[in-house]
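Hello,

I think I submitted the 6-O-phosphono-beta-D-fructofuranose job twice by accident. Can you confirm which output corresponds to this input? Input:
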Amino acid sequence: MPHAAWTELEAAARRDADARIVDQFAADPGRLARMTVEAAGLRLDLSKQSWTKAGFEAALALARACDVEGRRAALFGGEAVNLTEGRAVLHPALRAPAGAAFRALGEPVSAEVEAVRAEMRAYAEAVRSGNETGATGRPFQAVVHVGIGGSDLGPRLIWDALRPLDPEIDLRFVANIDPRDMAEALTGLDPETTLVVVVSKTFTTQETLANAEAAKAWLAAALPAEGMARHFIGVTAAPEKAAGFGCGRTFAFRDWVGGRYSLWSAVSLSCVIGLGWDAFQGFLDGAAEMDRHFLEASLETNAPVLLALAQIYNVDGLRRPARTVAPYAHALRRLPAFLQQLEMESNGKRVRRDGSPVGRPTCPVVFGEPGTNGQHAFFQQIHQGPQVVPAEFVIVASTDGETSESPLWANALAQAQALMLGKSEIQARAELIASGASEDEADRLAPHKTFPGDRPSTAIVLDALTPQALGALIALYEHKTFVEGVLWDINSFDQWGVELGKALAKSILRDVAARAPAPDLDPSTAALLQRLIR
Ligand code: F6P
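Support: Only one job matched these inputs. Its output is below.
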């Protein structure tokens, strides 16, 4: 029964609250082996988490009681797991090897996936080779990718992570409705050699349509009208809308691809143009390998399951409402932003699948910066603040440009160690005395130089930032997010929470047009509106 398993997990966490992480290695000699797994070329080390052996087993028992395996089968089987929208959720179909036989709500989808992949590949190769040209016959040298949320964050992450330092194609991204974003992206580009890829699952998103119109105006000022469509590519689940907008060509995906899970589809066409097909295929292959691991590994050695359980243990067992993610690779600097959408839009929910309240905390606040930048910003709070914030270190064994004598990863290991070990007040005082401080000075300063320690962290290790490793890493996080949704019994695949603000923005824009707040507007919003109307 999930209820009893939750009670047991909470009780185990209460007992573990007094056990120090560092002591557990001696108390439980099998700890490191039990809490370390290898999956699709990645290593996951959860042995610096707060759980004891008993806590770890209580978490695994929760996964069993919540039927993670059954719900996983429903996901891969193309059932309507997104039950508020009546849709299957089949991003694994997008990265499956040729010849797979996925079905969405019973309908075969793999042949169509392969056909779109072939179209993407051929088109990207034609752009890269110069065979595909713009309105005036010149080859494309720049691509402007227009999209927001799931139609932006994934491709941006892929490009930043894998792009060469001096790419053949100048790929730029525009998401924000603030015209400054588009203005920055277009600076220095030549309309004759610029391709605009408009990415929107719905093709109704206000920001993306406004930016696409701005790009159209920029192109129209320089190009003959009859050739304009060659400069516009649509990527969407609503191809008729993209054609209506003026896209000369459209790459489609289906409604069983969630926006924040769509980077495996034609949504990443701009990256395929920028990187070439082989890199994208490697990215898909890495994810497919993680899919196989997720499907085949037992729960106790299953990387996405264990990563999810560590989060559940922190959030629900120990009531820690935030988690920081620190990728120690500059090229992964967009990972925290990507994970914010993946996790917070998927699992920032308060009701179960049946509509009843979850009754316990769900998705934590996810935030982060690349290492070592974060160390010089918010890590102070993580080391010495009274609230415990679990940390996740994404470590790359070798990154471009670093030396083997001072690898970036050494900083990640040191931070994780400092978080776990801390420094006692006695130790801090002794160090002060040893460095020449007086007894009074040592008494005064020691509390400030004390680190409580016992702060949990996870390490995820990649050998190198290859396309395969990046694919495996993102798929790991996707499945982890899914498993958490299973344990909380929520629908991880809708996002109704973004709708209300969108609707109210329309009504505020009506007030702006009327140059007066509506009579029923609350006093604070009305006063702000008056102040802002120019
Ligand atoms: O923010 C809400 C949202 O619907 C996201 O889920 C989605 O990724 C984003 O907007 C963009 O949507 P679209 O791809 O339809 O433009």
